[in-house]
Design goal:
The structure holds 2 protein chains of 2 kinds.
Chain A: H1 3-33, H2 39-48, H3 56-73, H4 78-83, H5 90-111, H6 120-140
Helix pairs in contact in A: 1-2, 1-3, 5-6
Chain B: H1 2-35, H2 38-49, E1 52-53, E2 64-65, H3 66-69, H4 71-87, H5 92-96, H6 104-125, H7 132-153
Antiparallel strand pairs in B: 1-2
Helix pairs in contact in B: 1-4, 1-7, 6-7
The chains are: A mainly alpha, B mainly alpha.
Amino acid sequence: MNWYKLCVMVHLLAVFFWLGHMFFWSLVVGPITKRFEPPELGRAIRQMSLRGGGLGWPALFVLAFTGVLMLSYRGVTLQTFLSGELFVSPFGRVLGIKLLLVVLMCLYQLFVGHRSAPHLVFVNMMVALMIVALSILLVRAPNIF
Amino acid sequence: MTAYLLAVYIHVLATILWIGYVLFWAILIGPLARQFKKPELAQLLKRLNESSWPPGLVPPPYRLKLSGLGWVPLAVLIITGVFILHYRGITLHFVVSGGLFLSHFGQLLIAKLVCLGGLAIGQLLITYRPSPRLIYLELLTTISIVALSVLLVR
């Protein structure tokens, strides 16, 4: 196994843990525990999701680090990125959209984080779903564009 | 190609939900085991497992129990997994004849399927009871499956 495969594994595990945690607690655990009696118990269970400060920032850090390594393995350099040369190809344009969506998720993490945002959290989840879809297109169907 | 990409997408989403489910128990059981005595903890876990979902949106008879929710992503993973293997040319004949398992791909696939079987048995028999070590073992098995999947496709 080379370091590229190791990067893919770590990248995927970070995605799965982060999104799995976000989706499961927002869509399942939250609605269930809000109906718990006494309400303090439900609140205590919800608070446990933030043990150690939550997964958002650590996952984003791991994703950015492994993402940059994987892009460099695929021949994407800082120069092709900054000069705009990368975005000439259809692959680069899709990658650009993915990176823009990642920036949106970072902004959500920065300005909303673990605060209650009943509507925005669903927007954030939709963005996450789009990022997953674009990532699959990038690695499994590079010739489609 | 479109059906294949859709199957991969659904497979990945099911993995996300599955890991969310396992992670939920892994996060919860440790601290709860420290806070409550064993009979109280068992009662609380039973109550959690029997909570219905989604509350409010769907009439009660059609809601799932939290304990049953873990089976949904597993079922989706199996269905989409079989479809993806079929797309990659792995036929039933190739599996039954044993030809598949002579290849490196086949051996990795067997290892993945053994881990998956272990997860299913674990979910059926032992986990989500006051047993923090077993849920951590389940989490570790899930991580191994992701690692094997990467080796299979890359």
